Request: fold
Amino acid sequence: MNPLGDEVRDEVYTAAADWHSRLMDEDNSAHAYAEFDAWLAADARHQAAFSAVEQAWSSMRGARVDPRILKLRREALSATHRLRFFRVAAAAAVIGVGVAVAYLANPLFRDGRVTNPARMMGAATDGGEFRTAVGERSSVTLSDGSSVVLNTNSRIEVRFTAQQRNVRLLAGQAWFQVAKNAARPFVVEAGDQRVTALGTAFDVRLDDLDTGDSVQVTLTEGTVSVEPIRSPLTRLIRRPVVAAVLEPGEALVVKDDAPAMKSKADLVKVSSWRQGQVVFDNDTLDAAVAEINRYSPLRIELADARLGQLRVSGVFKAGHSESFVETVTGHYPIQIAARDETRILLTPLTQ
Reply:
Protein backbone atom coordinates (compact mmCIF):
# COMPACT_ATOMS: atom_id res chain seq x y z
CA MET A 1 0.00 0.00 0.00
CA ASN A 2 1.28 3.45 -0.85
CA PRO A 3 2.19 5.39 2.37
CA LEU A 4 1.25 8.65 0.63
CA GLY A 5 -2.25 9.50 -0.40
CA ASP A 6 -2.56 9.42 -4.21
CA GLU A 7 -3.41 13.10 -4.37
CA VAL A 8 -0.47 14.15 -2.16
CA ARG A 9 1.95 11.90 -4.02
CA ASP A 10 0.89 13.24 -7.40
CA GLU A 11 1.24 16.85 -6.25
CA VAL A 12 4.75 16.13 -4.96
CA TYR A 13 5.81 14.59 -8.29
CA THR A 14 4.26 17.45 -10.23
CA ALA A 15 6.31 19.93 -8.20
CA ALA A 16 9.45 17.84 -8.65
CA ALA A 17 8.96 17.72 -12.43
CA ASP A 18 8.38 21.48 -12.53
CA TRP A 19 11.55 22.14 -10.55
CA HIS A 20 13.59 19.83 -12.78
CA SER A 21 12.35 21.61 -15.89
CA ARG A 22 13.09 25.06 -14.35
CA LEU A 23 16.62 24.12 -13.34
CA MET A 24 17.45 23.01 -16.89
CA ASP A 25 17.09 26.61 -18.09
CA GLU A 26 20.40 28.43 -18.35
CA ASP A 27 19.06 31.81 -17.18
CA ASN A 28 18.12 30.74 -13.64
CA SER A 29 19.11 33.21 -10.93
CA ALA A 30 20.69 32.51 -7.57
CA HIS A 31 17.30 33.27 -6.06
CA ALA A 32 15.75 30.38 -8.03
CA TYR A 33 18.32 27.94 -6.69
CA ALA A 34 17.70 29.22 -3.17
CA GLU A 35 13.98 28.60 -3.61
CA PHE A 36 14.74 25.09 -4.86
CA ASP A 37 16.94 24.32 -1.84
CA ALA A 38 14.18 25.53 0.44
CA TRP A 39 11.66 23.31 -1.34
CA LEU A 40 13.92 20.27 -0.94
CA ALA A 41 14.46 20.97 2.76
CA ALA A 42 10.76 21.41 3.47
CA ASP A 43 9.89 17.72 3.15
CA ALA A 44 11.90 14.50 2.74
CA ARG A 45 9.43 13.37 0.07
CA HIS A 46 10.53 16.27 -2.12
CA GLN A 47 14.07 14.90 -2.44
CA ALA A 48 12.79 11.41 -3.23
CA ALA A 49 10.44 12.69 -5.93
CA PHE A 50 13.10 14.92 -7.49
CA SER A 51 15.59 12.01 -7.51
CA ALA A 52 13.05 9.85 -9.35
CA VAL A 53 12.53 12.50 -12.04
CA GLU A 54 16.27 13.06 -12.33
CA GLN A 55 16.92 9.33 -12.68
CA ALA A 56 14.42 9.06 -15.52
CA TRP A 57 16.04 12.03 -17.25
CA SER A 58 19.57 10.66 -16.76
CA SER A 59 18.55 7.30 -18.24
CA MET A 60 17.24 9.01 -21.34
CA ARG A 61 20.25 11.29 -21.67
CA GLY A 62 22.66 8.39 -21.38
CA ALA A 63 20.95 6.41 -24.08
CA ARG A 64 21.64 8.74 -27.02
CA VAL A 65 18.19 10.27 -27.03
CA ASP A 66 16.82 11.74 -30.21
CA PRO A 67 16.50 15.54 -29.80
CA ARG A 68 12.83 15.23 -30.69
CA ILE A 69 12.24 13.12 -27.58
CA LEU A 70 14.03 15.65 -25.40
CA LYS A 71 11.89 18.43 -26.85
CA LEU A 72 8.68 16.55 -26.17
CA ARG A 73 9.80 15.67 -22.68
CA ARG A 74 10.62 19.28 -21.82
CA GLU A 75 7.25 20.43 -23.13
CA ALA A 76 5.46 17.62 -21.30
CA LEU A 77 7.01 18.76 -18.03
CA SER A 78 5.61 22.23 -18.53
CA ALA A 79 3.05 23.29 -15.98
CA THR A 80 0.70 24.20 -18.84
CA HIS A 81 0.24 20.49 -19.61
CA ARG A 82 -1.09 19.59 -16.17
CA LEU A 83 -4.32 17.68 -15.99
CA ARG A 84 -7.10 17.19 -13.41
CA PHE A 85 -9.00 13.94 -13.98
CA PHE A 86 -10.94 11.98 -11.37
CA ARG A 87 -8.29 13.12 -8.85
CA VAL A 88 -5.34 15.50 -8.97
CA ALA A 89 -2.95 13.78 -11.39
CA ALA A 90 0.68 14.74 -11.88
CA ALA A 91 0.42 14.69 -15.65
CA ALA A 92 3.54 16.79 -16.12
CA ALA A 93 5.66 14.33 -14.17
CA VAL A 94 3.75 11.35 -15.48
CA ILE A 95 4.17 12.19 -19.14
CA GLY A 96 7.85 12.97 -18.74
CA VAL A 97 8.54 9.68 -16.97
CA GLY A 98 6.22 7.91 -19.39
CA VAL A 99 8.38 9.03 -22.31
CA ALA A 100 11.43 7.67 -20.49
CA VAL A 101 9.67 4.36 -19.89
CA ALA A 102 8.71 4.00 -23.54
CA TYR A 103 12.23 4.98 -24.56
CA LEU A 104 14.08 2.58 -22.29
CA ALA A 105 11.80 -0.33 -23.10
CA ASN A 106 12.26 0.18 -26.81
CA PRO A 107 15.40 -1.19 -28.54
CA LEU A 108 14.63 1.06 -31.50
CA PHE A 109 15.79 4.06 -29.49
CA ARG A 110 18.73 2.40 -27.75
CA ASP A 111 20.67 1.50 -30.88
CA GLY A 112 19.33 4.12 -33.27
CA ARG A 113 18.25 1.53 -35.84
CA VAL A 114 14.88 0.55 -37.21
CA THR A 115 14.36 -2.92 -35.75
CA ASN A 116 11.66 -3.78 -38.27
CA PRO A 117 13.10 -2.48 -41.56
CA ALA A 118 10.88 -1.91 -44.54
CA ARG A 119 10.49 -4.94 -46.80
CA MET A 120 11.68 -4.32 -50.35
CA MET A 121 9.05 -5.10 -52.95
CA GLY A 122 11.34 -6.15 -55.76
CA ALA A 123 12.84 -4.57 -58.89
CA ALA A 124 11.94 -1.18 -60.31
CA THR A 125 8.44 -1.07 -61.70
CA ASP A 126 6.24 1.13 -63.83
CA GLY A 127 2.98 -0.69 -63.11
CA GLY A 128 1.15 -2.95 -60.69
CA GLU A 129 -0.51 -3.00 -57.29
CA PHE A 130 1.42 -3.05 -54.02
CA ARG A 131 0.17 -3.43 -50.47
CA THR A 132 1.26 -3.87 -46.87
CA ALA A 133 -0.30 -5.81 -44.02
CA VAL A 134 -1.16 -4.33 -40.63
CA GLY A 135 2.07 -3.42 -38.86
CA GLU A 136 4.21 -3.70 -42.00
CA ARG A 137 6.19 -1.07 -43.92
CA SER A 138 7.44 -1.62 -47.47
CA SER A 139 9.47 0.22 -50.10
CA VAL A 140 8.74 0.30 -53.81
CA THR A 141 11.29 1.48 -56.38
CA LEU A 142 9.71 2.91 -59.51
CA SER A 143 11.16 2.71 -63.00
CA ASP A 144 11.80 6.48 -63.20
CA GLY A 145 14.01 6.44 -60.09
CA SER A 146 11.27 7.62 -57.75
CA SER A 147 10.55 5.67 -54.58
CA VAL A 148 7.49 5.03 -52.42
CA VAL A 149 7.37 3.86 -48.81
CA LEU A 150 4.07 2.31 -47.73
CA ASN A 151 2.90 2.55 -44.14
CA THR A 152 0.82 -0.03 -42.29
CA ASN A 153 -2.22 -1.52 -44.04
CA SER A 154 -1.69 0.53 -47.21
CA ARG A 155 -2.24 -0.11 -50.91
CA ILE A 156 -1.21 1.69 -54.10
CA GLU A 157 -1.72 1.15 -57.81
CA VAL A 158 1.04 2.29 -60.19
CA ARG A 159 0.34 3.11 -63.83
CA PHE A 160 3.11 4.86 -65.78
CA THR A 161 2.69 6.13 -69.34
CA ALA A 162 5.01 8.02 -71.66
CA GLN A 163 3.22 11.26 -70.78
CA GLN A 164 2.55 10.92 -67.05
CA ARG A 165 3.53 8.97 -63.95
CA ASN A 166 0.39 7.92 -62.07
CA VAL A 167 -0.01 6.40 -58.61
CA ARG A 168 -3.35 5.78 -56.92
CA LEU A 169 -3.36 5.54 -53.10
CA LEU A 170 -6.22 3.13 -52.47
CA ALA A 171 -5.77 2.82 -48.70
CA GLY A 172 -3.48 3.91 -45.89
CA GLN A 173 -0.46 6.17 -46.15
CA ALA A 174 2.57 6.55 -48.41
CA TRP A 175 5.65 8.74 -48.67
CA PHE A 176 6.90 9.70 -52.12
CA GLN A 177 10.40 10.75 -53.19
CA VAL A 178 9.88 11.91 -56.76
CA ALA A 179 12.59 11.98 -59.44
CA LYS A 180 12.56 15.18 -61.48
CA ASN A 181 11.13 15.00 -64.98
CA ALA A 182 9.38 18.13 -66.23
CA ALA A 183 8.05 16.29 -69.28
CA ARG A 184 6.28 13.62 -67.16
CA PRO A 185 4.35 15.00 -64.18
CA PHE A 186 4.10 12.71 -61.15
CA VAL A 187 0.45 12.46 -60.08
CA VAL A 188 -0.88 10.82 -56.92
CA GLU A 189 -4.62 10.35 -56.52
CA ALA A 190 -6.16 9.69 -53.10
CA GLY A 191 -9.88 9.77 -52.43
CA ASP A 192 -11.22 12.61 -54.58
CA GLN A 193 -7.95 14.58 -54.52
CA ARG A 194 -5.11 14.79 -57.05
CA VAL A 195 -1.55 15.72 -56.03
CA THR A 196 0.79 16.82 -58.83
CA ALA A 197 4.57 17.14 -58.47
CA LEU A 198 7.68 17.28 -60.65
CA GLY A 199 10.56 16.61 -58.28
CA THR A 200 9.75 16.65 -54.60
CA ALA A 201 9.11 14.65 -51.41
CA PHE A 202 5.71 14.44 -49.77
CA ASP A 203 3.45 12.28 -47.63
CA VAL A 204 -0.16 11.34 -48.46
CA ARG A 205 -2.54 9.78 -45.95
CA LEU A 206 -6.04 8.50 -46.75
CA ASP A 207 -8.38 7.80 -43.82
CA ASP A 208 -11.78 6.21 -44.22
CA LEU A 209 -13.86 8.04 -41.61
CA ASP A 210 -17.50 7.58 -40.65
CA THR A 211 -18.23 10.90 -42.35
CA GLY A 212 -16.31 10.04 -45.52
CA ASP A 213 -12.74 10.11 -46.77
CA SER A 214 -10.06 12.35 -45.28
CA VAL A 215 -6.95 13.10 -47.32
CA GLN A 216 -3.87 14.70 -45.79
CA VAL A 217 -0.95 15.86 -47.93
CA THR A 218 2.26 16.98 -46.20
CA LEU A 219 5.13 18.48 -48.19
CA THR A 220 8.74 17.92 -47.13
CA GLU A 221 10.56 19.47 -50.07
CA GLY A 222 9.80 21.02 -53.45
CA THR A 223 6.31 22.11 -54.46
CA VAL A 224 3.05 20.27 -55.09
CA SER A 225 -0.44 21.29 -56.14
CA VAL A 226 -3.54 19.61 -54.71
CA GLU A 227 -6.89 19.80 -56.47
CA PRO A 228 -10.20 17.93 -56.51
CA ILE A 229 -10.62 15.24 -59.13
CA ARG A 230 -13.33 16.53 -61.45
CA SER A 231 -16.31 14.30 -62.04
CA PRO A 232 -17.73 13.92 -65.58
CA LEU A 233 -20.53 16.32 -64.61
CA THR A 234 -18.06 18.92 -63.34
CA ARG A 235 -16.08 18.67 -66.56
CA LEU A 236 -19.25 18.95 -68.62
CA ILE A 237 -20.38 22.21 -67.01
CA ARG A 238 -16.77 23.47 -66.90
CA ARG A 239 -16.91 24.33 -63.22
CA PRO A 240 -13.54 25.84 -62.27
CA VAL A 241 -11.23 23.79 -60.06
CA VAL A 242 -9.08 25.67 -57.55
CA ALA A 243 -5.73 24.04 -56.79
CA ALA A 244 -3.93 24.52 -53.47
CA VAL A 245 -0.16 24.94 -53.78
CA LEU A 246 1.92 23.69 -50.86
CA GLU A 247 5.34 24.89 -49.79
CA PRO A 248 7.80 22.78 -47.74
CA GLY A 249 6.59 22.32 -44.19
CA GLU A 250 2.91 22.78 -45.06
CA ALA A 251 0.05 20.29 -44.84
CA LEU A 252 -3.38 20.24 -46.43
CA VAL A 253 -6.29 18.25 -44.99
CA VAL A 254 -9.39 17.71 -47.14
CA LYS A 255 -12.46 16.02 -45.67
CA ASP A 256 -15.74 15.22 -47.36
CA ASP A 257 -17.72 17.11 -44.72
CA ALA A 258 -15.47 20.17 -44.28
CA PRO A 259 -13.55 22.74 -46.33
CA ALA A 260 -9.87 22.16 -47.11
CA MET A 261 -7.54 23.33 -44.34
CA LYS A 262 -3.91 24.31 -44.91
CA SER A 263 -1.58 24.56 -41.91
CA LYS A 264 2.02 24.35 -40.79
CA ALA A 265 2.98 20.69 -40.56
CA ASP A 266 4.61 18.85 -37.69
CA LEU A 267 7.17 17.08 -39.87
CA VAL A 268 8.52 15.06 -36.94
CA LYS A 269 5.14 13.48 -36.29
CA VAL A 270 4.29 13.01 -39.96
CA SER A 271 7.60 11.32 -40.81
CA SER A 272 8.04 9.27 -37.62
CA TRP A 273 6.30 6.19 -39.05
CA ARG A 274 9.12 5.73 -41.56
CA GLN A 275 11.42 5.03 -38.60
CA GLY A 276 8.89 2.71 -37.00
CA GLN A 277 7.84 5.30 -34.44
CA VAL A 278 4.58 6.90 -33.35
CA VAL A 279 4.96 10.40 -31.89
CA PHE A 280 2.40 12.14 -29.69
CA ASP A 281 2.70 15.76 -28.59
CA ASN A 282 -0.09 16.71 -26.19
CA ASP A 283 -2.56 14.61 -28.23
CA THR A 284 -5.79 13.32 -26.73
CA LEU A 285 -5.76 9.71 -25.61
CA ASP A 286 -8.60 9.11 -28.08
CA ALA A 287 -6.37 10.18 -30.97
CA ALA A 288 -3.35 8.33 -29.59
CA VAL A 289 -5.27 5.06 -29.25
CA ALA A 290 -6.63 5.39 -32.79
CA GLU A 291 -3.09 5.88 -34.10
CA ILE A 292 -1.62 2.98 -32.10
CA ASN A 293 -4.42 0.73 -33.36
CA ARG A 294 -3.37 1.35 -36.97
CA TYR A 295 -0.23 -0.69 -36.43
CA SER A 296 -1.53 -3.80 -34.69
CA PRO A 297 -4.39 -6.31 -34.90
CA LEU A 298 -4.61 -6.01 -31.11
CA ARG A 299 -7.18 -3.28 -30.53
CA ILE A 300 -7.16 -0.87 -27.60
CA GLU A 301 -10.61 0.34 -26.54
CA LEU A 302 -11.69 3.01 -24.04
CA ALA A 303 -14.79 2.09 -22.05
CA ASP A 304 -15.31 5.65 -20.76
CA ALA A 305 -15.43 8.60 -23.15
CA ARG A 306 -13.85 10.83 -20.49
CA LEU A 307 -10.63 8.85 -20.74
CA GLY A 308 -10.26 9.98 -24.33
CA GLN A 309 -9.73 13.58 -23.21
CA LEU A 310 -6.52 12.80 -21.31
CA ARG A 311 -3.41 14.23 -22.96
CA VAL A 312 -0.44 12.14 -24.10
CA SER A 313 3.08 13.11 -25.16
CA GLY A 314 5.75 10.58 -26.00
CA VAL A 315 7.45 8.43 -28.59
CA PHE A 316 6.42 4.80 -28.94
CA LYS A 317 7.34 1.91 -31.19
CA ALA A 318 4.74 1.27 -33.87
CA GLY A 319 3.00 -2.05 -33.42
CA HIS A 320 3.80 -2.42 -29.71
CA SER A 321 0.32 -1.93 -28.28
CA GLU A 322 1.19 -3.74 -25.05
CA SER A 323 3.98 -1.31 -24.15
CA PHE A 324 1.71 1.65 -24.87
CA VAL A 325 -0.96 0.22 -22.57
CA GLU A 326 1.63 -0.50 -19.90
CA THR A 327 2.81 3.12 -19.98
CA VAL A 328 -0.70 4.58 -19.94
CA THR A 329 -2.00 2.36 -17.13
CA GLY A 330 1.17 2.90 -15.13
CA HIS A 331 0.94 6.68 -15.14
CA TYR A 332 -2.73 7.55 -15.45
CA PRO A 333 -5.83 6.65 -13.40
CA ILE A 334 -6.60 3.86 -15.87
CA GLN A 335 -6.81 0.09 -15.52
CA ILE A 336 -7.26 -2.92 -17.81
CA ALA A 337 -10.84 -4.14 -17.39
CA ALA A 338 -10.74 -6.97 -19.93
CA ARG A 339 -8.36 -8.44 -22.47
CA ASP A 340 -8.12 -11.26 -24.95
CA GLU A 341 -6.14 -12.00 -28.11
CA THR A 342 -7.90 -9.29 -30.10
CA ARG A 343 -8.50 -6.37 -27.71
CA ILE A 344 -7.58 -4.59 -24.49
CA LEU A 345 -10.40 -2.70 -22.75
CA LEU A 346 -9.38 0.26 -20.57
CA THR A 347 -11.55 1.79 -17.86
CA PRO A 348 -11.08 4.44 -15.16
CA LEU A 349 -9.16 3.26 -12.13
CA THR A 350 -11.56 2.46 -9.32
CA GLN A 351 -10.96 4.08 -5.96
